[in-house]
Amino acid sequence: MFNGFSHSVMGASHVAKGIVCQDSSAHKITDRYAVAVVADGHGSKKHFRSNIGSQCAVEATIETIERFYENADDFEANFPKNHKRIIRNIERQIVAVWNSKVMKHLEENPVTVVEKKPFKQEEFEAISPESYYGTTLIAAVAGRGFSFGVQIGDGSMVGIFEDGEAVMPMDYEEANPANITASICNTNAASMFESFYVDDKRMIALYTSTDGLYTSFGSEYDFRDYHVIVSSQLKNAEALEASVLKNITKRSHFGTEDDISFACVYDPEFAAEKADMLAEMVERNKKRAAERKAKLHTANF
User: Fold this and answer.
1) At 5, phi and psi to the nearest 5?
2) Distance of CA 113 to the CA centre of its chain
3) Which of 76, 134, 140, 259 can pair with 149 through a Cys bridge, CB separation 3.0 to 4.6 Å?
4) What is the helix (H) or strand (E) element at residue 292, kind and residue range?
5) pTM of the predicted model, to two decimals?
6) What is the helix (H) or strand (E) element at residue 230, kind and residue range?
7) How many CB atoms lie within 10 A of CB 119?
8) Domain limits, the chain
9) What is the pLDDT of residues 140-156, one digit of tens each?
10) Which tens digit of pLDDT belongs to each residue from 109-141?
11) CATH class of this structure's domain 3-157+172-197+208-217+237-263
């Protein structure tokens, strides 16, 4: 019923500076649900273990969804009518599992002299241990008869449903003070999530990506159109996955030069059924893009 893929690639700027890839991604496919999750470790000075934090975030998400689905029949029966409360509980559980993972890592791997070197003593002591591992997180879940997702921090989630339109059900708007980054490492992280739930539209595909992908496009229109193009090729899964990996690698080197993570879960049978419609959507979007370009060109003269 479900299939999927996930990839993380290092940006050219990180390669040039000798910085590790701070992104992580994962997907999980079962006969009852599928999860696509990405995380982008913060690049600032105090988040010096954010690459580990992002990996812990995707692991915590997969493990949390697994736990909620332990009794799948009960979950599927209760979730539609109680989805707001259950999603809040999922968010809290993700944060709790993430905290446990990073604290275990810190216990087993104390901060080294090299890691402390960039800081003055009082500066280092002012940093909370969780902040070493700071990261964003975006997860999309496809269930039987419904879809939902959660997000903290920047990045994007795109859904392609039965009408073939690319929608962003969690257009993330930073609602916090300018000096506070929405992060899973924050003490009030559980209250900083955005979420979505859909049960009135059948899903073709759900995509999650870190902000390196979005910023590699010239506009939101182009970004959305890209997901329709990918969806139109889902019937050729093996070739598509190789093509996607090649494309995001190119974007990470010649676009914003940032790390990029891209994960997807989809319904292969429904995608095949909607292949002709999606191909038509691709052609329509090409025409619209050409019209926008022509208008922009005219406006500049």
Assistant:
1) -155, 165
2) 33
3) 140
4) helix 275-299
5) 0.94
6) helix 220-232
7) 16
8) 3-157+172-197+208-217+237-263
9) 999 999 999 999 999 99
10) 999 999 999 999 999 999 999 999 999 999 999
11) alpha beta
